[in-house]
Design brief:
Blueprint: H1 23-36, E1 48-54, E2 61-64, E3 71-74, H2 84-95, H3 115-119, E4 124-130
Antiparallel strand pairs: 1-4, 2-3
């Protein structure tokens, strides 16, 4: 069982808070278990905090470094797995020399709709708590 939400922001050069540092780490999940799975409301066996890679607007960031043969795709934590096959196909075609698919355009760093993201120095990381 796990909790999937924004978590606590942290400096990605350091470590997120250890699981159990916040009362909500176990408390939120325990409340859900008591309500919906009362037979499973025993002692916690293990807990962990996971790093998530997400952008300020929670959308993907897929682009190329101007003038360099370097592409990047980030910000997929939480929901990116659902889109990985389709985005991977388009990204692989672009890296292999095809024109960038118009379907990737909304995720470009230079997209005016991502102006707040363009000002950010790097994607934020947040721990996600799992029990």
């Amino acid at each position: 069982m796990g909790r999937h939400d924004g978590g606590e922001d942290f400096d990605p050069r350091g470590q997120p808070l250890a699981f159990g540092s916040l009362a909500s780490d176990e408390g939120d999940v325990r409340g859900f278990v008591r309500r919906f799975l009362p037979g499973a409301a025993g002692a916690l066996k293990r807990g962990a905090s996971c790093r998530y890679d997400r952008t300020p607007d929670e959308d993907f960031l897929i682009d190329r470094v101007p003038g360099l043969p370097v592409w990047y795709a980030t910000g997929f934590s939480g929901h990116g797995f659902k889109f990985a096959p389709a985005l991977g196909r388009h990204l692989a075609a672009w890296i292999s020399g095809e024109d960038r698919s118009p379907l990737l355009a909304p995720f470009a760093r230079r997209n005016p709709g991502l102006s707040a993201l363009a000002k950010a120095s790097a994607p934020r990381e947040s721990p996600k708590h799992n029990t």
